[in-house]
């Protein structure tokens, strides 16, 4: 440990260190030492070092500073000897970490301030829009029109799914408002969009649009009558396809009660698909050509629908408490309590009543029907 008087302190680049202190100091010497030795000592110290503050204080006051030379290592550069702080690497690393931390904190602060400014600007614009709308409403002339006359605009430049949704939305709204004429017009337009060689286009509808489009086709299957039952059959197939796609891809169960109602009120519209979901092996080959075959197929189809309905029932009705688990005021063709009882009475008399796996069987038939209808879209 020796005493040094600080002469000057400067910031320098020293080797790999870009920003360190070079301290020029004079060692205090006794009388005899002063006769034989001369020169000053140059120390290289990190700005993060505890010595830095002490050196700055001694520089200001001119007092002597005790320095332990063992804390330094000698380094000769271009013939000049420097005493470099032994822990300079650790101090410089700590400095880099501190600078990086401060940089990140500044970055976060700047980002937060920018987000706050953007939020304030959005809030200002919303308030301005609200004031504009309020002003426009004050000065507007109000014309009252029946809700049944409101129609969504079908833009031919929109995607096919958006076009179908607009037409289906008009059909659903017209049905609810008892505007039968507009309902008929919209439902026929919807039907023709995917009829015949255009049936494959049904595959292009977005899953999220399946509920709206499916419910419109449900109405057509249940209530449309032009004397050709095949129209109701195709509408039922389209309804099943759309609602199934929405349910499977998005998990939306709100339209499943409508399929339950369709299978309860008009199951013949899906008779072929119901039969093929679990065909009678006795009717394979020549067995299918007997006079009784059509009646056997029809009966089989009606029985096959029961586990499917059992599966669908779980999505909106608690059989234990005998209560609906959804809002029954929704316009989704939700069956009544009496209709659920009617189904239950038919189900308990069927071969599936005592099968614990009847719900999973029904789900299997449900999936088979979709694949069947999906294959028909190629025809």
Describe this structure in words.
With 379 residues, the chain is α+β, with helices and mostly antiparallel strands. Helix 4 (160-176) runs antiparallel to helix 5, helix 4 (160-176) packs across helix 6 (210-223) and helix 10 packs across helix 12. The chain has helices spanning 31-36, 50-61, 88-139, 160-176, 180-193, 210-223, 229-250, 256-265, 271-276, 293-313, 337-348, 358-376; strands at residues 2-14, 17-27, 41-45, 64-67, 72-77, 80-85, 317-318, 323-324. Helices cover 54% and strands 13% of the residues. The termini are far apart. A hairpin with a 4-residue loop joins strand 7 (317-318) and strand 8 (323-324). It has a 6-stranded mixed β-sheet with strand order 4-1-2-3-6-5, with helices on one face. Strands 7-8 form a two-stranded antiparallel sheet. The radius of gyration is 42 Å and the shape is elongated.
